[in-house]
Amino acid sequence: MFYSILVGGQLYIMALCIKSALGALRVTSKSALVSTKLPNMHCVSAKLYSNSQNENSHSTSPKGFVTPSPYQPNRKPARYGYRQKLYDGGLLPRLDEEIKTLPKYNPGNAWSEKKALFGQNDYIDILGDGSIQPYENINGPRWLVGFAGNEYERTLRRLKWTGKKLAALHPKLNNDLNKRLRYLYREFNMGRRSHRSRSKKI
Amino acid sequence: MAFLSKGVHSMWRSTKLLQTLLPQVSQSFLCSSSELSSSSNSESESSDSLESASHVIDTERIRNRKLLYPPQHSCDRIQSWVSTLSRLQDDKVGIIDLHPSIFGVHPRLDIIHENIKWQQKYKNIDFSRVRTRAEMPGGGRKPWRQKGTGRARHGSIRSPLWNKGGAAKGPRGPTSNFYMLPFGIRVLGLRTALSCKLAQNDLHIVDSLYIPAEDPEYLRDLVKSRAWGYSLLLVDDNDEVPQRLANALQQIPEYNVMPAYGLNVYSMLKHETVVLTLSAVEKIEERLLYHLHRSGCVQQKFRLPL
Q1: Domain-by-domain residue ranges, chain B?
Q2: Long-range contacts for B248-251 (Cβ within 8 Å, ≥24 apart)?
């Protein structure tokens, strides 16, 4: 079990070996490291630091103990807590990242019931007894079934079919449709000859 | 017999050959149909022969079939084998005449294209809609005065120029692509599709939709042994599908069944093989010939009843 302790701005790395459970407590600077939560990059730098410190200090200090000296520079792992975004791990593949690719081709089911029977009863007026017309196959608002027109015609037909209901239940929509109808009437008709002012008439 | 059963569709046009062979063919059918009911035939003693004994093939109806509006010229004669789904082997139980103005028209691909496009379009309703500046809330106040601020002049925060402003010329409301293809073009589309399918050996006629087993493997084996391809469209005159067939088809999405009035150009092209029952052939011919020969305007314009 390893614990790292930060005391007075200096990082002392203490290793509490499993043997310490028996009572043998050893404090070593050589036994490197490491808080388990740090990413790999910081582990590397911490290792380097501890090695370099060993070369300088261990020749003079007794083994297993580093004297806190005022002449020693305040050495701790460079840029501690900084997460580097750039990868500096060398020429290795980025196995921990998900590689961005095209989305997997996922075709739809061409033989779902809806697609397999698409078009059924489209010729029912020919092959049937003639009582049903193809436009009755259409699902949609009743005022639009079997009808195609421009926006003005559609709005007019919608208001004609459902105007009273809209006025009672959806006054905002009813107001918007009426406003739109007025706007479209002007848009379509005011440029025409019959709507121009008399002075401009040719 | 062997070469006839292999390439019969391609040889229909050579009427002389058929006319010489027909007496022999009809005799051999008489023999085979009588042998079907009796179990004395050694070849027909397969596992499904006993089950198909309950299914009686109406050979009289096949033999006595007469065309409505018979063609005037014998060179127009078009014929097809009638087989059965009640047996795994591709045994022919008869041969029938088909009407040349239904099953032998010129392959007009433009007509088929028009029909397919119509089927895709006429039912389509586009519900996409975006709000205009008039329909969005707010925007009545001028955001800043006209002069003196150094900023561009604006009159409403819902102008199409603005972020979160209204849309100019966006999709408006439920829109319909409805149109009706002329009646005659649609009749011709059905005739052309049937003719093309027949000419390409992709249209087969069976006596009924009776199958002896509801196991889907039976149907798969049958289709595989007859080289009917990936997908299959069964057409019957009746609304109701036999229980066994329904159970089998429920497990095979590529094989579908349709009533005769539901037949259409898109489905005929989507499915690799079309199988018509004899009653479906009669129904389809009757309806199409009625529209070809009836009085009145066929090309009348569609008007929505209101």
Answers
A1: 69-122+178-293, 127-176
A2: B248/B211, B248/B213, B248/B214, B248/B215, B248/B216, B248/B218, B248/B219, B249/B216, B249/B219, B251/B216
List, in order, residues 6 or more apart from B65 with CB less than 8 Å away.
B96, B97, B278, B282
Whether A122 sits inside 8 A of B266 (CB atoms) is: yes
Nearest Cα to Cα of residue A148 among B57, B304, B115, B235: B304
Q: Spell out where B88-131 has E strands.
A: 92-98, 125-126
- Mean pLDDT in residue range B37-65: 62
Tell me if A86 is assigned to some domain: no
Distance CA B187, CA A45 (A): 83
Within-domain flag for A181:
yes
Give the integer Cα–Cα distance in Å for B194 and B173. 39
Tally of domains in chain A: 2
Residue A12 structural domain: 1-27+41-51
Written as six digits, the tokens of B69 are 């509006």
Instruction: For residue A190, tell me if it sits in a domain.
Output: yes
Residue A165 domain-assigned (yes or no): yes
Length of chain A measured in residues: 202
Distance between CA B262 and CA A122 in Å, rounded?
7
Contact B125 A144 (CB under 8 A): yes
Which CATH architecture describes the domain B69-122+178-293?
Answer: 3-Layer(aba) Sandwich (3.40)
Neighbour-count burial of B300, counting CB atoms closer than 10 A to its CB (0-12 exposed, 13-18 middle, 19+ buried): exposed
Q: pLDDT digit string (tens) for A101-158?
A: 899 999 999 999 999 999 999 999 999 998 999 999 999 999 999 999 999 999 999 9
Complex-level ipTM? 0.79
Average pLDDT for B235-257: 95
Residues of B in contact with A158 (CB under 8 A): 173
> Across the A/B interface, how many CB contacts are shorter than 8 Å?
108
Sheet holding B203-206, edge to edge: B92-98, B78-83, B203-206, B273-277, B232-236, B255-259
Q: Of B232, B263, B306, which to mutate for an interface test with A (greatest number of A Cβ within 10 Å)?
A: B263
Closest to A126 (Cβ–Cβ): which among B179, B231, B291?
Answer: B291
Amino acid at B110: D
Percentage of residues in chain A having pLDDT higher than 90: 42
SS3 B258: strand
Tokens 């998900």 appear where? A98
Looking at residue B306, its pLDDT comes to: 63
